[in-house]
Specification:
It is a single chain. By secondary structure, this protein is of the alpha/beta class. It has 2 domains: 169 residues, Rossmann fold; 178 residues, Argininosuccinate synthetase, chain A, domain 2 (Alpha-Beta Complex). Helices cover 41% and strands 21% of the residues. The protein has 12 helices and 14 strands. The protein has a 5-stranded parallel sheet, sandwiched between helices. The protein binds arginine (ARG). Arginine (ARG) binds next to helix 4, strand 6 and strand 7.
């Protein structure tokens, strides 16, 4: 019997997949990754066994997710097409890496995932695994199996008594982890339709958010967030806390049409309370401490970093090289940012750092001014010189 390690979520697709693989004579090992999606993993574990898995791993990957995936992307300033903070995209190479580790440990020949052939996630899983373990055989049955629609999957699950929460009719496709939530399908497929309030889970509607703003201070050390309001938090707890604070103020909702790697546009809604606060705060601290050339060059790097992450190229040489570059830029990204959260908005209202490059005596129009304006005359002449006839 061939052994296969399946990236198992406990949802309908991957549950049907366990049964399907068993019927094809595979010994199925289910790998459940806890990346902060907040599921009942005991229930999911039992479901996997009941459906035919011979063994189940429940891996708590939250800490690794935040320190090795989320924080590097934050330091890089990665944001895809100016809107998407990459929560799902960041989790895939982590899960794929652990699938490989389990496959090695269990001497499995094959790994499988439950992604469709139209999405980005298949690419992220398969590319990461191909890079990390080129000899592993990979399977993606959803692309070709006989269960074409969700209804057919539900029938299959009922017929084979696969314990699944199929009665609750949820028209949306949702991916959630500690760093954010992504919602697609259903009425959202029409890009003109406003997302109904029911799709949101991490954030309250800005309209219903408190009438009074919430002020917070976030501290960074070398580009990594460490404190909220002066109190130190461990990485996972820090994200968790900011999700709550941001969520209560309706911060972090994004409605976008994005370009998938496979060539189609899709409409996706995101909730990213912690990510939004951290991204804005981090950018602001960089604005204070980085010199102009580094800051502006790094913006191009950020874009590339986001594309590599989105496109499943996390484990490539270029991404690793960019990590080294980004780390070098973060040497002085240490300080505090003060933010005002109010009805969906997240505004920076203060920033400070011992490495600040802001010089009040040069910027001021008051009597402390030491800027020698006479120098400007020559500067302007030389600046225009190449263009003068
Ligand atoms: N479009 C995003 C990405 O490719 C999120 C996908 C999440 N999946 C979902 N079912 N909403 O990273």
């Amino acid at each position: 019997m061939k052994k296969v390690v399946l990236a198992y979520s406990g949802g309908l697709d991957t549950s049907c997949l366990i049964k399907w693989l068993r019927d094809k004579d595979y010994d199925v090992i289910a790998a459940i990754a806890d990346v902060g999606q907040g599921e009942n993993f005991e229930v999911i574990k039992k479901r996997a066994i009941k459906t035919g898995a011979s063994k189940v791993y429940v891996l708590n990957l939250q800490k690794e997710f935040v320190t090795d995936y989320v924080f590097p992307a934050l330091k890089a300033g990665a944001i895809y097409e100016n809107k998407y903070l990459l929560a799902t995209a960041l989790s895939r190479p982590l899960i794929a890496k652990h699938q490989v580790l389990i496959a090695n440990k269990e001497k499995a020949t094959t790994v499988a995932h439950g992604c469709t052939g139209k999405g980005n996630d298949q690419v992220r899983f398969e590319t990461t695994i191909a890079i990390l373990a080129p000899k592993l055989e990979q399977m993606a049955p959803l692309r070709t199996w006989e269960l074409k629609t969700r209804e057919e999957e539900i029938d299959y699950a009922l017929k084979h008594k696969i314990p699944c929460n199929v009665t609750k009719k949820n028209p949306y496709s949702i991916d959630k982890n500690l760093y954010g939530r992504a919602i697609e399908c259903g009425v959202l497929e029409d890009p003109w339709t406003e997302p109904p309030e029911e799709i949101y889970d991490m954030t309250i509607s800005p309209q219903k958010a408190p009438q009074k703003p919430t002020y917070i201070e976030v501290d960074f050390v070398k580009g990594v967030p460490t404190k909220i309001n002066g109190k130190t938090y461990k990485p996972v707890d820090l994200i968790h806390k900011l999700n709550i604070i941001g969520g209560k103020n309706g911060v972090g909702r994004v409605d976008m049409v994005e370009n998938r790697l496979v060539g189609i546009k899709s409409r996706e809604i995101y909730e990213n309370p912690a990510g939004t606060i951290l991204y804005i705060a981090h950018q602001e601290l960089e604005a204070l401490v980085l010199d102009r050339e580094t800051l502006q060059y790094k913006q191009r790097v950020a874009q590339k970093y986001a594309e590599l992450t989105y496109n499943g190229l996390w484990e490539t040489p270029l991404k690793h090289q960019l990590d080294a570059y980004v780390d070098a830029t973060q040497e002085h990204v240490t300080g505090t940012v003060r933010l005002k959260l109010y009805k969906g908005s997240c505004m920076v209202v203060g920033r400070k750092s011992k490495y600040s490059r802001y010089k009040e005596e040069l910027a001021t129009y008051g009597d402390k001014d030491i800027f020698d304006q006479k120098l400007a005359e020559g500067f302007n002449k030389l600046w225009a010189m190449p263009f003068m006839e």
